[in-house]
Design a protein that fits this description.
transcription; 131 residues; WH_DNA-bd_sf; 2 domains; transcription regulation; single chain; elongated; Arc Repressor Mutant, subunit A; BlaI_family; WH-like_DNA-bd_sf; 56% helix; 9% strand; mainly alpha
């Protein structure tokens, strides 16, 4: 079983811990956030405005966040949902395996019965032609 390697130039660098925390805050936000709103949302970390601004800019450059100018401030939002990103990461991990069948088998071995049932249902749906 072979899967073509994927190369997404904006997302090929892993996120650091602070970038991950900011992305989690973006995913949990009800809508786009300005830098000031993000600083407030992450208040328990005591981050400087400039630090959050730099992290959001990095996430934008890496292709993880989109931004729109609203007045004099950018409003940031995730480029993709958390689930879409996790799916992409799983596909990238699988495509990097020398033995994809063995990697899938190891992955399935770690699943709970509920997760295995959900996967089975998704695979069954995928095999059914769409009307």
């Amino acid at each position: 079983m072979s899967r073509p390697r994927r190369k997404d130039p904006g997302n090929d660098r892993p996120l650091g811990p602070l970038e991950s925390a900011v992305m989690n805050a973006l995913w949990e936000a009800p809508g786009p956030l300005t830098v000031r709103q993000m600083v407030d949302a992450m208040g328990e970390r005591g981050l400087a405005y400039t630090t959050v601004m730099t992290v959001l800019d990095n996430l934008h450059r890496k292709g993880w966040a989109e931004r729109d100018l609203a007045g004099r401030a950018y409003r940031y939002r995730p480029k993709a949902s958390r689930e879409e990103r996790v799916g992409q990461l799983m596909a990238e991990a699988l495509s990097s395996a020398a033995d994809q069948h063995a990697a899938l088998a190891r992955f399935v071995d770690t699943m709970t019965p509920e997760e295995a049932a959900a996967l089975r249902e998704l695979l069954d749906q995928r095999g059914t032609p769409k009307p």
